[in-house]
Design goal:
- By secondary structure, the protein is mainly alpha-helical.
- Helices cover 62% and strands 6% of the residues.
- The chain contains 33 helices and eight strands.
- The strands form four sheets. The protein has a two-stranded antiparallel sheet with strand order 1-2. It has a two-stranded antiparallel sheet with strand order 3-4.
- A hairpin with a 2-residue loop joins strand 3 and strand 4.
- Helix 9 runs parallel beside helix 13 and helix 17 crosses helix 18.
- It is globular, with a radius of gyration of 36 Å.
- The N and C termini lie far apart (100 Å).
């Protein structure tokens, strides 16, 4: 922006008005905002500035407006000054302010900025993101004043009250502006605060909670819930996408478990205790029982190897640690694989009152808005409506997964609370307790989430995962959120299968039967487990949990059925027809000297006629081949052990080893996910050889040496078993020590597990059985 334009913009902003001292009494003076004479015209001029300098990724005018603080100093006071907007002039001024505020508060799209910077090969287009974030947070703080959001809501009420058919384009624009402003405010991230932070930093970290409180008090939250519950209504279905976006930003960054009353209280009270326990564990790992007070002066030790080589160690505590541990400590650690990072999610800080407010909001949304909102959104996705963008699909999956998890956790909490109160209650209080229990359980009934567990919705999400996986530049973050949604749906179906209500059990069986009927769906998740490379840590955790839940629910469903069929896709081998044009017979050929055409007619050679006829036949056959199907589907009986055996693959083991690289940071549940699959492969599939790889055994050795408490229940016993079987097998087959350096196919694993001699004997027995089976038929052929 040139200096003349910059000065013109500054003068236009100054002409909006300013604060002046006014006094009703001689001894009483106060500051009040006084609008300029051409305030409305100046607001329109600023809007023209913004539109003229609009550039993808950055806007110079918005940066200047943020530096001057026009929103806090001018726009918000102008809105408050013209409230209530009981005249056309006041309403126009408030709307002009909102038209400026919406682009000023527009959230930062980090992914779009990264793509733009990579395309133009210029990082300067990203700008100072920290400064932009701080400006947005100042805007958010300005809207925490009483009455500002209420003024925006009051302006929206008039067009909302107009019947849908009678609404004008201006009415639709006013509604869209107000909803966009609410969406922008909740999308602005709060700064993170540490335990040692100041009070101002802590207050800044809970601005989202204060904003939601203002939403509650000024009827904005009721408007959003009304839009969600009336999404199937023609008059309000247009705003389902922006309502989804707003609720997504409200609930993102919060675990659904934190909203449960007992768990949230325990989590807040135990944060300090968890930090102390973590510090104590680190001290135990660094210390040994043999340490003395003189160790701080250093230690020098000499080690003599079997071949006479001497090694001198200068390390603290060298007398009390193993020789291998000391050598490993001086080695240069291998660089870990750099994994992708997610930039669109952040952890929110919430107090108990804020969590209680979100809990009531989630319950209200479940009761009245879940089914209508997601039904209308799914229809818009199927019809490819223009208002539903790509990022709405991710928000759709995230919000559905969050509410499904909350519904399941809250139902468990209500049931446990009822059982505890029932034990200590007087017999006269049992009736009231039961009535209260029924009332609470209805707020988290499975009927409230019926849209999520419909077969159409499940297959739509699976199709979304397949589409994102089959593209060249795979969108792993989209796949992660969709997988998270699928696993929450599976957990809900599993809970329904254990319900006392027969209708829920039947519905769960129908949906699971349709889902597992497609072999391509099961194969998709197996391919995801095999093809992990450098995706993010969150993606890896989601993938491992997805495989654990899928195998658990599939095993439970298949064991409940006497037989089960799946549909597999098979390619059809095309047989091309041979177009052999036989020559004309001797009796059909013309005799010598006999002409077949009248004089004066154009003669056409015979080979051209044959080529023309042959070309027409080839075109016809090509059209017939295009009409023929290329694939067919066949029904096969499903055996769970066969599908389980597909996970005994070296690439799957590599994925889980990447998951266990940070085993020190994993909790007991996450260790159980890996131990469960390892147990299925080693014990159920009888395939221990797939673990006989040097990198895998080294990881197992580290887990054993760490003696981690969270790994003692499942992982350490399994690792001990594998290591024991490895050395036992090495005594029988000494060349196994060389096999650990090479990749293994299924055939190699079978040879190691069974033994080559035993495998050859089995093959010989099988071939003899086949010969005996065909011997009577061969004798019959010889007699003929």
């Amino acid at each position: 922006m040139d200096p003349d334009t910059e000065s013109l913009l500054i003068s236009t902003c100054q002409a909006l008005g300013g604060f002046e001292y006014i006094s009703d009494d001689i001894n009483d003076q106060r500051q009040a905002y006084i609008m300029g004479d051409e305030c409305l015209a100046c607001l329109k001029d600023i809007k023209k500035f913004i539109k003229y300098y609009e550039h993808e990724g950055d806007n110079v005018v918005l940066t200047y407006l943020g530096t001057m603080g026009i929103l806090e100093k001018d726009l918000v006071p102008i809105i408050l000054l013209n409230t209530p907007a009981n005249s056309n002039v006041r309403e126009r001024i408030v709307l002009a302010c909102i038209e400026l505020i919406v682009p000023m508060t527009w959230p930062i799209d980090y992914k779009a900025l990264e793509k733009l910077a990579d395309t133009e090969e210029d990082n300067s287009i990203v700008g100072n993101l920290h400064q932009r974030l701080e400006t947005l947070r100042e805007y958010k703080r300005a809207f925490l004043q009483r009455g500002v959001l209420g003024a925006v809501f009051a302006v929206m009420l008039k067009p909302l009250g107009v019947e849908y058919r009678m609404r004008t384009t201006r009415d639709q624009a006013v509604i869209r502006l107000g909803l966009s402003l609410f969406r922008n405010l909740v999308a602005i991230p709060d700064p993170e605060s540490s335990v040692s932070g100041t009070m101002d930093q802590f207050i800044s970290s809970i601005m989202q909670e204060e904003l939601l409180d203002r939403f509650q008090k000024e009827n904005v939250m009721e408007l959003l819930l009304t839009l969600a519950s009336s999404s199937t209504d023609v008059q309000l279905t247009e705003w389902n996408a922006i309502a989804l976006e707003t609720f997504y930003h409200i609930f993102s960054g919060i675990d659904a478990v934190e909203l449960i009353p007992a768990v949230s209280g325990q989590a807040k009270n135990s944060q300090l205790q968890d930090l102390l326990n973590k510090e104590e564990k680190e001290k135990k790992l660094q210390s040994t029982a043999g340490r003395k007070r003189h160790d701080r002066f250093g230690t020098t030790g000499e080690v003599r190897l079997q071949d006479g080589t001497r090694m001198v160690l200068h390390q603290k505590g060298a007398l009390f640690t193993s020789f291998e541990t000391q050598l490993d400590s001086v080695k240069k650690p291998r660089a870990r694989t750099k994994r992708q990072k997610e930039t669109d999610e952040y952890k929110k800080n919430m107090t108990r009152s804020g969590l209680a407010m979100l809990r009531e909001l989630a319950l209200t949304l479940l009761e009245s808005g879940f089914n209508p909102l997601f039904t209308s959104l799914r229809q818009c996705i199927e019809l490819e409506r223009e208002r539903v963008k790509d990022h709405h699909r991710n928000q759709y999956h995230y919000l559905m997964a969050f509410l499904l998890k909350f519904q399941r956790q809250y139902a468990d909490y209500v049931a446990k609370q009822y059982q505890e109160q029932k034990k200590n209650a007087h017999p006269r209080e049992l009736t009231s307790l039961e009535e209260e229990y029924k009332k609470n359980i209805l707020r988290c009934d499975f009927d409230l989430v019926a849209t999520a567990i419909e077969t159409a919705n499940v297959f739509q999400i699976v199709g979304f995962i397949r589409t994102r996986y089959e593209v060249k530049d795979k969108l792993w973050d989209d796949i992660r959120k969709a997988m998270n949604c699928i696993q929450e749906i599976l957990m809900t179906l599993y809970a329904m299968s254990k319900s006392l209500n027969e209708t829920y059990r039947d519905d769960s069986a129908i949906v699971q039967s349709n889902l597992y009927h497609e072999d391509a769906t099961l194969e998709l998740f197996l391919d995801l487990a095999k093809n992990y490379k450098k995706q993010s840590t969150k993606y890896l955790h989601t993938l491992v949990r997805m495989i654990h839940i899928l195998l658990k629910t599939l095993e439970n469903f298949s064991s409940s059925k006497s037989y089960m069929f799946i549909r597999k896709k098979r390619a059809i081998a095309r047989r091309r027809k041979k177009n052999v044009k036989e020559g004309m017979n001797a009796e059909q050929q013309p005799e010598e000297g006999v002409t077949t055409q009248a004089a004066g007619e154009d003669e056409q050679p015979l080979y051209e006629v044959l080529q023309t006829d042959g070309g027409q036949e080839q075109d016809q056959e090509r059209e017939d081949d295009e009409d023929q199907p290329t694939h067919t589907f066949k029904e096969h009986q499903f055996v769970f052990q066969e599908y389980e055996r597909r996970f005994a693959h070296e690439h799957v083991i590599s994925t889980y080893c990447a998951f266990l690289e940070n085993f020190a940071e994993l909790d007991e549940t996450q260790m159980h996910w890996a131990a469960s699959l390892f147990h299925r492969i080693a014990v159920n599939c009888s395939n221990l050889a797939v673990f006989y790889k040097l990198s895998t055994l080294h990881l197992f050795h580290q887990i054993l040496q760490s003696n981690k408490e969270d790994a003692r229940r499942d992982m350490i016993p399994f690792v001990s078993y594998v290591v024991h079987q490895f050395f036992k097998k090495m005594q029988e087959y000494p060349l196994l020590i060389a096999e650990v350096f090479f990749p293994k196919t299924s055939k190699n694993c079978l040879e190691i597990n069974v033994g080559r001699d035993e495998l050859e004997r089995e093959k010989l027995v099988i071939s003899e059985k086949k010969e005996k089976r065909w011997e009577p038929q061969l004798l019959g052929l010889k007699s003929i």
